[in-house]
Q: What sequence folds into this?
């Protein structure tokens, strides 16, 4: 689904938010990602499960965890 208010197709990667030493950064990171307003948000395993839960709640329709062997195709506009 194309986000009509976005100029950014996607944010892809591991956000390194797993562990007590960085979990306090989850809400701040979500706020920054909301301002970016990407069409899709793909998070790797090092994002951490707590952050993935919050990301899935905050980006209900455009969040997906990355997986090994996953294939993601982006169409040019």
A:
């Amino acid at each position: 689904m194309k986000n009509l208010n976005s100029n950014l197709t996607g944010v892809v990667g591991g956000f390194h938010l797993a562990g007590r030493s960085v979990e306090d950064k989850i809400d701040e990171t979500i706020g920054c990602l909301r301002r970016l307003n990407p069409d899709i948000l793909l998070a790797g395993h090092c994002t951490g499960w707590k952050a993935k839960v919050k990301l899935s709640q905050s980006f209900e329709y455009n969040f997906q965890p990355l997986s090994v062997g996953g294939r993601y195709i982006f169409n040019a506009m």
Notes: Residues 10-65 form one domain. Strands lie at 10-13, 40-43, 63-65.
